[in-house]
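#onboarding

Welcome to the new folks! Below is a worked example of what a typical request in this channel looks like: someone posts a single protein sequence, and someone else replies with the predicted structure as tokens. Don't worry about understanding the tokens yet, we'll cover that in week two.

Example request:
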Amino acid sequence: LDSPRTTTPSHIYLIMSEAKELDLSSIWPLIFDAFDANGDGTVSRQELAKFWKEGGTISHVLAGSDFDKDGQITKEEWTKQYELLIKKFGKPGAGAIKEAKAVLEKIKAKK
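Example response:
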């Protein structure tokens, strides 16, 4: 059995606020965890819908990450999406990182 996830939304935001500099690769898993409201390791359609507005562009990217079309997005699929984006567009700039941080703040405010 997998051990329960110990990272809470509050813990995610504490990590982010204490970090001097985060790049998108360190924020990417935190975004997944923020959308994964019930902590089961997947993002369901319901969880995606719950934070759709707050997620902005990232919601669309997350929705496109369901590679096996089973209605659930796994952390592996989310990681694959990140790798594909980096391969296609290169290292994200400050704007993408700023947007990702803003999404996390919006989700925190809604929870």
